[in-house]
Give the backbone structure.
Amino acid sequence: MSKMSTFYNIDAKEIRRRIDKLCTASKPPSPDPVLGQQPNVVSEWNTFVKKHGRLIEYVLSQSITRSYWWEASPQRKFSTVPSMSDKLIDRIAINRALGVVIFIESKRSVGTIDSKSAKRIIDYDNAVRSSYKAVAKELGLDPADTLVFFAVFNAYGERSDGAKITGIPMLMPADLPKLFPPSVTSNMTSLDAQVSQHAAHVFERDIGPSPMYVDLESGDNSLFPEENHNFVSPNQDKQLTLYGFYDEIEIIRPDKDVEHRGFLREHISSVLSSCTHQ
């Protein structure tokens, strides 16, 4: 099986099941009072756009929170945060060893969101920024020693899309290797390749993998050496590999090594800052 068809640490069968149903509506669309029933291709197209966004969000969230040293918070309400107390929040990546929390919102293209969606993202970011200590405490972390971030993943947009959400970190596919283990990048690349193949078959069009994901597999833009493209289970002894952060690969224990822990925390902060449109 090629790298572009492999999923690591997540349920590959479930992902492939969702890909197979990307163009299948959960219920037939209501007929238009003038035009009548939608042509199949229109229904399939609209359904694909809706489900594809959710699938990107699902795979990214699962990949990050099941990668080494990261975990997911169960879907929850934050009772001590007024703006988050009335709705369920998920897609929270937690790295307890480093004391880092990242709330992640995914969009197919930030450049195409409307003003209402942009405002919701800005409000979400404001809530996280203003209540980071309460968030950390509710997640069982030390509020005085926890970095809490909010970021948007722009799956197929442009770097310039960040102008729509000024002041908020916006991650592009090329930024994933800077923050997360290799399995995250590989899973998103595999998803893009398999979705493209499925869409090409359904719509009978020449749809190939996106260059922004293909480039990640080339190794030229990745911080992770190919020879270390082996993904370990969280059940193994707690140690973390710094792929490409230093000239030589080092194995560290960030829960015991203060210097390396500080370096990684600063690295994450720096990457998110560099992805923020000011």
